[in-house]
Specification:
This protein is mainly α. 61% of the residues lie in helices and 0% in strands. The protein has 2 helices and no strands. It is rod-shaped, with a radius of gyration of 30 Å. The N and C termini lie far apart (81 Å).
Length: 77
């Protein structure tokens, strides 16, 4: 015998047949799957955009100004 735990309650119209009840359950399961898939895709998309932005953002070199001044013959700060 298998144990079955009911974790959700479904809004099933009164007098629904077994086929209608199972169709409602399948439709809700598909909707949950599609929603989770879309959320995972959105998370991956945001992570990819953040990585691209971090890669394209130029990092400030603290010695760059001193190097440019020394090339012009001027003293540093």
């Amino acid at each position: 015998m298998s144990a079955l735990a009911i974790t959700r309650t479904y809004a099933v119209p009164r007098g629904a047949t077994a086929l209608e009840r199972s169709s409602i359950r399948v439709a809700e399961a598909v909707a949950r799957w599609a929603t989770a898939r879309a959320e995972r895709r959105q998370d991956r998309h945001e992570a990819m955009l953040a990585a691209i932005q971090a890669e394209q953002t130029r990092k400030a070199d603290p010695h760059a100004a001193d190097h440019m001044l020394s090339q012009m013959g001027l003293t540093g700060r």
